[in-house]
């Protein structure tokens, strides 16, 4: 397997990881085929490109660990996909068939020579003890691989991806040996125009037609507010742990938090308070007028319906009644 030049990744700190929809669909399909309704996770290889501190994950394929069944032959062994083997009791015991990855990558390279190995994925849903060991294996194929954890059964709002890369951590007092640790890197979901069309076509079948566009927009805003609330609670929890001394002080995180606070508007300015009040009153006036118009239209339809019923009753009364003739006359 070709190794990417070190200048592409190792010489620059990773700033973000972009995951495409095709990768998410492939990983979910991999999980449903192999580890559905179990506590196991699945592992595979991520393909894509990297430039200027950004990793673009455009494709993936599942790993495969061999299981031998002598009585059934080699065909049965190949037909039983075991992406990743690990001991539930001892996390130090695990197996990943990297020879299989080498052959798979050579076939993928014939289709798209621009894609190379950028890392690996796991359905976690969290980091595990042996992830650093697995990560070290992928250093043979790319200088600075990324690990993307996909939560196939998310219980919280937000994107289901978390990306990490490994760095060498050196203690300040130099009394302890340096060790590899995972560092979180921002991840996002993005797609090319062709991918967007395909995703929209897939979502067309699962969309609830009984929900209006307004309800969809309101639901989206509500989901965004819930996600914001979850992030604020996470920030508060982190700051509480720092104050209590349970976590070390990280000046970079505090610097980013200060940037967020600097972007907040000053609500103590009279002009801003007045502008908010005027804007709110204008919106409430439109809602009030809409309610009045809706009520007037409902009354108008009710009156028209009542008048129409009266006209039908008059028409029925004005019809001449037929006199029955006596039998035998």
From TrEMBL:
Keyword Translocase applies: no
PROSITE patterns (UniProt xref): MPN (PS50249)
Domain of life of the native organism: Eukaryota
Entries under SMART domains matching the protein: JAB_MPN
All residue ranges annotated as the MPN domain in the record: 17-173
GO cellular component, one term: proteasome regulatory particle
Gene Ontology molecular function: metallopeptidase activity
Protein's UniProt keywords contain ATP-binding: no
Keyword line: Proteasome
Gene Ontology BP, a term: proteasome-mediated ubiquitin-dependent protein catabolic process
Xref: Pfam families: JAB, MitMem_reg
Family in the record: Belongs to the peptidase M67A family.
Stated name of the protein: MPN domain-containing protein
Gene giving rise to this polypeptide: gb14054
């Amino acid at each position: 397997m070709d190794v990417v030049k070190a200048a592409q990744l190792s010489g620059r700190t990773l700033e973000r990881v972009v995951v495409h929809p095709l990768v998410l669909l492939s990983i979910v399909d991999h999980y449903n085929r192999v580890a559905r309704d179990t506590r196991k996770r699945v592992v595979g290889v991520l393909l894509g490109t990297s430039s200027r501190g950004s990793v673009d994950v455009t494709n993936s394929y599942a790993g495969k660990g061999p299981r031998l069944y002598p009585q059934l032959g080699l065909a049965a062994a190949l037909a039983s996909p075991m992406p990743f083997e690990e001991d539930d009791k001892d996390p130090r015991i695990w197996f990943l068939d990297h020879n299989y990855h080498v052959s798979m990558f050579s076939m993928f390279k014939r289709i798209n020579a621009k894609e190379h190995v950028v890392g690996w994925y796991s359905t976690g849903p969290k980091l595990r003890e042996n992830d650093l060991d697995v990560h070290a294996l992928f250093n043979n194929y790319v200088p600075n691989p990324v690990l993307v954890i996909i939560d196939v059964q998310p219980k919280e709002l937000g994107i289901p991806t978390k990306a990490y890369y490994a760095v060498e951590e050196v203690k300040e007092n130099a009394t302890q040996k340096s060790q590899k640790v995972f560092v979180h890197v921002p991840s996002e979901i993005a797609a090319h125009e062709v991918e967007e069309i395909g995703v929209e076509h897939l979502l067309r079948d699962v969309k609830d037609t009984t929900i209006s566009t307004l309800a969809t927009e309101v639901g989206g805003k509500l989901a965004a507010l819930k996600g914001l609330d979850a992030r604020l609670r996470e920030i508060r929890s982190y700051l509480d742990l720092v104050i209590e001394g349970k976590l070390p002080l990280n000046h970079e995180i505090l610097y980013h938090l200060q940037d967020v606070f600097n972007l907040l508007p000053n609500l103590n300015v009279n002009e801003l308070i007045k502008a908010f009040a005027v804007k709110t009153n204008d919106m409430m006036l439109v809602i009030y007028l809409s309610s009045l118009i809706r009520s007037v239209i409902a009354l108008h339809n009710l009156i028209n319906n009542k008048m129409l019923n009266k006209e039908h009753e008059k028409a029925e009364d004005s019809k001449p009644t037929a006199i029955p003739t006596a039998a035998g006359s």
